[in-house]
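Same chain as my last thread, 351 residues:
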Amino acid sequence: MIKVGIIGASGYTGAELLRLLKAHKKVEVTYVTSETYQGQKISKLYPNLRGHFDLKLSSLEVTEAKKRADLLFIALPHGESQRVVRQLFNESRVPSPELRIIDLSGDFRFKSADIYEKWYKIHHEHPELLGKAVYGLPELNREKIREARFVTNPGCYPTGAILALAPLLKKTAVFEKSIIVDSKSGVSGAGRIPGFQTHFCQVDESVKAYGVGTHKHTPEMEQELTAMSGEDVKITFTPHLVPMNRGILSTCYASLKEELKEEITGIYEDFYDDHPFVKVLGEDELPETKYVLGTNYCHLSARLDERSGRVIVISAIDNLGKGASGQAIQNMNLMLGFLEDEGLKNPGLFP
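reply #2:
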C-alpha cells in the first residue's frame, strides 16, 4: 500500500479527497493536518467520514510528513502552499527522492511570478520553484504527469473551460482572441470558511456575477490554451455564483476562422477518445451539473451557430471532483503507475 498524506485536510477539498480515497484499493491515508483543528478527529469535523476516517488532525511537521507519506496532497489556501512546498524540496529544488507532491493551490500553476502576483495579489516568495511542477490536466499532459514528482492541480473553472476549448484550438479552428467563457459555480467553490458573500441569505434565490474581468483563473486558462494552440489566446471570463452546493457549468463561445467541414461532435469524440473521464454527449443532449455530482467526470457538448459563425461548447463538472480532489487523485494514479480511473469509477449522485 502507498502511504498518502493530506496537508490542510480540514477544508472542503481535503474532505473530498478523503471521501474519494476510501474507494481506492492501493493507498492508505496515514497523515492529515490542520492548524485550526489540530488534535480533533477529522470525523468530528466531517461526520460523514465517521467510521471510515477517524484519524486525528495534527499540526504540520515537515519532517514527520516526509516520514509518514510517499505522496502528499497539499490542500492549503493560495499563498500558504509556497512555504510548505519549499520545505518539502531539497536544496537542489526538487522533492526528496522518495516523495511525490500534488499541490491543489494556485501557487505553482504559472511560469511567471509577475502574472501570479498581478492576478492573485499575493507576493510569491519562491519564484525559483515556478516551472518545476507539471500542470495536472491529464487530458493534455498525461505522459508528463506519469513522470512527474511535483504536479500542480488545475483550478476548477480552468478545468471546465480548457476541456471545452482545447479540441478547437488544437485544430486552429477558432480565432484565439474571440473566446468568451461564462461559468456558473456552486458555493462550495468559495471554500469552507464562511464570508458575507457566501452567507445563505446572500446566495439563496439569487445569481450574481463576480470577478468580472479580474478573476484569477483567467491567466491560467490563457496560459494553457496558448500552449495548446501555439498562438496567443485571450479570454473574456465571467464567473457567476449560483445557489447550489457544488458543480460548475461553463458555456464557451468562439468565432470560427472558417466554416467547419467536419461534424463538430466528431471533433470532440476523436480528441477525447482515450480519456476515461470526459464524456462527449450526443447532438440531442446538453450537460447538466446534476449528472456529474460527486464524480470526476466532465460532460461536454458542442454546437455550431451557423448564423453567427460561432461555436458554443458547454461543459459540466463537479468543482470538488474533476475541478479539485477527483482530478488530484487522477493525477496521483498516473504518478504512481496505477490505472488512471482507480478509485474514481463511481457514477454521479442522483437525484
